[in-house]
Amino acid sequence: MIRVLVVDDHPVVRSGLVGLLGSEADLEVVGEAGNGREGVTLAASLTPDVVLMDLRMPVLDGASATAEITAAGTARVLVLTTYDTDGDILRAVEAGATGYLLKDTPRDQLLAAVRAAARGETVLAAPLAAKLMRQVRGGDQLTPRELEVLALVAQGKSNPDIARDLFIGEATVKSHLLHVFDKLGVSDRTAAVTHALERGLLPSPGG
C-alpha cells in the first residue's frame, strides 16, 4: 500500500485528489494539509511514501516545504501545480522533488506518477522536461540582440520605437520578443522585464 499525503491550499482541489487517490486499491491517503508548513509537520508525523505538493501556498510555499521534507528523508515529493515557468520547475527540482506535474495531467498519468514516485523514479511531464533541460544546459541565455530589445522594452518603448532605434523591422522585434518570452518562461512584456531584472539580466532602474 502506497501512503500519500496531499498538500494544497484549495479545498476543492484537495478533496478531488483525495477522492481520486482513495479509489485505487493500492493507494491510501493518510492526510491532507492546506499550506506548506502544515505539510511539513504532517509528513514528519505520518511518514507517507509520497507527498503530492502544490507550489504556491500561504505560510510556507511548496518548494520550501519540499526542501524540508526531502532533507528530513521522510517522503518523496511529487509537485502538482498549475505553474510551469522555468523558475518554478527549477526551484522544485533543486529542492529535491522527485517529480513535477501540471494539474491538467490526465487521471491515469497522475496515478502512474504517484506509483513511480513511490518507487523513487523521477517523473516529469514531457514539456516541462524540455524546459528544465534547456535551463540546466544554459540554453535559455538571451542573445545580445534579445537583451537590446528587452532593455528598450524596459524603457517603455513600443515595437515601432524599438524597430527604429535598432534599424530592424517590426516583425523582427516581435520575433525577438517571442523568443525572449519563451526563454524566460513568461507570456507578456511586463513579466519579461520583471523576470530579467530579478535575474540580473538587465541593469536595475537608476542603478
UniProtKB/TrEMBL annotation:
Domain HTH luxR-type, first and last residues per copy: 135-200
Modified residues (4-aspartylphosphate): 54
Protein name per UniProt: Response regulator
InterPro entries, sorted: CheY-like_superfamily (IPR011006), NreC/VraR/RcsB-like_REC (IPR058245), Sig_transdc_resp-reg_C-effctor (IPR016032), Sig_transdc_resp-reg_receiver (IPR001789), Tscrpt_reg_LuxR_C (IPR000792), WalR-like (IPR039420)
Keywords: DNA-binding, Phosphoprotein, Transcription, Transcription regulation
Superkingdom per UniProt: Bacteria
Domain Response regulatory: 3-118
PANTHER family: TRANSCRIPTIONAL REGULATORY PROTEIN NARL-RELATED (PTHR43214:SF24), TWO-COMPONENT RESPONSE REGULATOR (PTHR43214)
SUPFAM superfamilies, sorted: C-terminal effector domain of the bipartite response regulators, CheY-like
